[in-house]
Amino acid sequence: DTGVSQNPRHKITKRGQNVTFRCDPISEHNRLYWYRQTLGQGPEFLTYFQNEAQLEKSRLLSDRFSAERPKGSFSTLEIQRTEQGDSAMYLCASSCPTPSGRSSTDTQYFGPGTRLTVL
Amino acid sequence: GENVEQHPSTLSVQEGDSAVIKCTYSDSASNYFPWYKQELGKRPQLIIDIRSNVGEKKDQRIAVTLNKTAKHFSLHITETQPEDSAVYFCAASMADTGRRALTFGSGTRLQVQP
User: Which residues in chain A touch residue B106, judged by CB atoms under 8 angstroms apart?
Assistant: First the structure.
């Protein structure tokens, strides 16, 4: 499978525990994004990497959230001291700018997500 | 920041009819507008996108139109089929500048009745 992959697919944890999710982007995609999606809503942006550099962070990303992409390939998203409000689907997407004339499209391809349930 | 509004929230059509979903955006600097289809329990999948230098784009039964002046864009699906039933999300970003994050609308649940 050459698409974006995420692990685990499901995670159930107790309030206060730490959890870590992994995203493997499409090979050679240098941009990687994390989004959060709650039931009935569109995905909300959390953070974005270009290679190993974290270039953009949403104000939704509280101090309990941290993301890394140490070698510019896979990324991890850690949530510390989970709260019930953290229950959501965590989606990862990757892109590779494709020059088209004078500008690029930078299409984002999504992974299957990790569904987090905090009890 | 950018805000994207999407209407309607639900849409039911008969098989073979057309479906139209509309979105408005607030930031005139946005220049890239993709549409994603998400089936229950699955990942969002890109179905079509348009850049701000183009007014309309078509791919078989799917078309997207963009009105930069009014800051709105629409998805048109013709000859709908039951397999078109899903949730559709519009989004906006500034693909060539710093803000590459997509801002999504709240989604439209399309149901195609056979």
Answer: 40-42
Structure tokens at B80: 């709908």
Query: What tens digit of pLDDT does each residue of B35-85 get?
Result: 999 999 899 999 999 988 889 999 999 999 999 999 999 999 999 999 999
Under DSSP, is residue A86 helix (H, G, I), strand (E, B) or coil? helix
In this structure, what is the dihedral angle of CA atoms B24, B29, B32, B33, given to the nearest 10 degrees? 0
Among residues B12, B18, B17, which one has the least CA distance to residue B74? B18
Q: Is B49 on the interface with A (CB under 8 A)?
A: yes
Q: Does residue A102 surpass a pLDDT of 50?
A: no
C-alpha distances (whole Å) from B24 to each of A58, B49, B54, B91 are 21, 15, 16, 10
